[in-house]
Amino acid sequence: MIATEQNAPRLRPGADHVESWFIRANDPRSPRAVWIKATVLTGMDGTALAQAWCSVFDGDRTRAWCTDIPLDTARFEENALGQAITAGPLRMQLTGRGGDSQGTLADDASTITWDLEFTRVPVLGAPLSMLPSDRLLDTGFPKNKLVTPFPVATVTGYLDWDGERWDLHGWHGMQGHNWGAEHSPEYAWGHSVFTETGTDAPFAVMEGASGRTRIGGKVSPLLSMLVIRRGDQEYRFDRIADLWRQRPHLDFPRWTLRMRGRDGTAEVRMHADPAQMVCLAYRNPARATSYCLNSKTAAVSVHVAPVNGNAFELRSVHGGALEFLAPQPVPAVQPIV
Q: How far apart are CA 204 and CA 314, in angstroms?
């Protein structure tokens, strides 16, 4: 599936549905990052709104903004370039080779403005799905879908935080798209781009998740999937038959995952400092609000032992995106939007 198809809206007006498109960019040389997101929320109760989000991370200094917009004033359209998204003050254009975003969000205390572009990195940046088959994107299982049209991208542009200008040239990024009838009851999700020391050139990427879903009205055990790309090699841990060969451990603010599959074995360890995270209120169409505990500057280590080839390790001190979804906020993580 190509990037423009992966980004196509799955809107379901009048039905319980939540859907998001998001862009992340990280400075490879410092614990600075930005996360931009457009969300649609509809419900059988008549709920119909869009949301514009932005979160910034700068060491212990973090901030998040969110604005609700009536859905009938938002736009999720296909044009000659790809997908054009407008959610109040936030705009995204997503094409087959990358995209751009502009926007301004403000509250009583602070203002954020951004204008950035991103371009796919060859090979590593090819569209990615952790599911074993794209056919599952159109089925009832799993109920929560996630694709990554651009898992590795180069970024240019700027961000202005209360008059402080960040030059985003040379940053690395990714762009993702997810949807479902509700947010997962619980999950940990991680993503990281790994760069060469000295040149900051991306040479590997990892994306994985451990989460629960609802099956027949009951909540499932933790199910995990993992994909690692290194150069032109890809290692997948995604087969339904292999789900029993996993060891996920969610212990906020740490996530550990061990998996074994046809490509070998892999272990992922991620952790974040709660003081460097944001807590975001994720509304569900027909259930209680969940809370996303989010870092875009997490520490990551990955160990892979392929069936064919030598074992290798990947590490990033502050380049990981790490999210936990929980039923309650954690007092140590601020602010809550």
A: 8
Q: Tens digits of per-residue pLDDT, 216-235? A: 778 888 989 999 999 999 99
* DSSP conformational letter for 32: E
3-state secondary structure of 308: coil
Question: Any residues with CB less than 8 A from the CB of 260 and at least 6 apart, and which?
Answer: 237, 242, 245, 246, 266
Positive/negative CA dihedral, 113, 117, 123, 129: positive
Residue 40's DSSP bridge partners are 19, 50
Instruction: HSE, CB side, 13 Å, CA atoms: give it for residue 88.
Output: 19
Beta bridge partners of 231: none
Task: Using CB atoms within 10 Å of the CB of residue 274, give its burial: 0 to 12 exposed, 13 to 18 middle, 19+ buried.
Answer: middle
Place of tokens 């989000």: 53
Residue 281 has which token pair?
Answer: 């209120």
Which of 337, 69, 37 lies closest to 178, judged by CA?
37
Distance CA 184, CA 322 (A): 15
Number of Cβ within a 10 Å radius of residue 176: 23
Q: Which residue has the tokens 């000295």?
A: 198
Considering only CA atoms, which of 214, 233, 235 is closest in space to residue 223? Answer: 214
Q: What are residue 274's phi and psi, to 5 degrees?
A: -55, -30
Structure tokens given for 9: 């809206």
Give the integer Cα–Cα distance in Å for 155 and 158.
Answer: 10
Residue 267: closest CA among 210, 317, 323: 210
Find residue 322's DSSP bridge partners.
Answer: 190, 295
Q: What are the C-alpha distances in Å from 322 to residues 107, 239, 271?
A: 26, 23, 8
Global confidence as pTM: 0.95
Convert the pLDDT of each residue in 226-262 to its tens digit.
999 999 999 999 876 666 689 999 999 999 999 999 9
Give strand pairing partners of 266: 259, 304
